[in-house]
Write the structure tokens for this entry.
Amino acid sequence: MKQRINELKERFASELSKVTDKQSLEELRLSFLSKKGQVSLLMQELAKIPNEQKKEAGQLINSFKQEVSARFDQKLEEMKKLEEECLINSAESYDESLPENIKKGSYHPITLVQRELEDIFGSMGFDVEDYSEIVDDYHCFEALNIPKFHPARDMQDTYYLSTRNQLLKSHTSAAQNSIMHKYGKLLKENGRPIRAVFPGRCFRNEAIDACHENTFFQMEGIMIDKDISISNLIYFMKTMLSEVFERDVTVRLRPGFFPFVEPGFELDIQCSICGGKGCPSCKNSGWLELCPCGMIHPNVLKYGGINSEEDPYEYTGFAFGLGLTRLAMMKYGVKDIRTFNEGDLRALSQFVSR
Ligand code: PHE
């Protein structure tokens, strides 16, 4: 009996090592532990052996049974763990709570617009930068020429954290200072212009309605080099918008105030619905406000380590803050901004990239 059990032990170990999926593991388990399995056969044999050997043989069979079932459980656990890891690592992890009828995932409309813009700006030599959502007062305001108690802070009331003077960024401009520090050396030592776009989620303490959300997306862009002028700004904005709307767009600049640009503008595009004649979509003005922008304020360039006190205009640059959420609304004809954050798949799964 002892020898039989040892043989079976070896057989079990070798077969277990060959198992690669749950089904063959289950088959192996049945071949050893089911009613007609090897362990039951041993039990039947137990009846035939002399009485004085029964006790020892019974114990041997029992401990063999326990060992088999423990090793089986262990293997199953390992396989489950491996499966979970694969699922997490693969792009195909899925949400089990999804309704049956939604089989294929789709990108969020803001992701689609963001990626399209990243491609367009990438093709014009811009780096795409990522930036945190939690920032400090210095980066969100002070470094942007918005000192404490400046009235411009009123429009950007946001959510403050109780620690370390931190807040949820109210605009993507909060990344400007860090990006200037990151690329300033390359600009000054190698003459490589700073060209960067940085998309991101922004937060403001807003009264929510069809056009306002407390959470929305912007895409900021800056370009800094010697002799950068408003013409460069207009060129890049026009090129980008013509790509996005797939037609030649007419733009205009109006004065706009932002403490971190001088001069500052509101960039409007001619309404595509009425061709500039005036209609309800453009509130009869013929223009749609799209993107605030301007030439980066000398103080901001100074705080970013780009220019020195002595030569505050050595390098110049432009900045723009495109409302990604707004752009997605215009591009896809979404009338209510809340659609984007509601997570209703009936609405969100309709959008496909071109
Ligand atoms: N950060 C500004 C806002 O969110 C927009 C802006 C960006 C204006 C860059 C000018 C230049 O209101």
In short: The pocket of phenylalanine is lined by residues 171, 173, 220, 258, 261, 264, 292-294, 319-321 (CB under 6 Å). The first strand starts at residue 127 and ends at 128. Residues 278 and 284 are 4 Å apart (CA to CA). The chain has two domains: 2-90, 109-348.
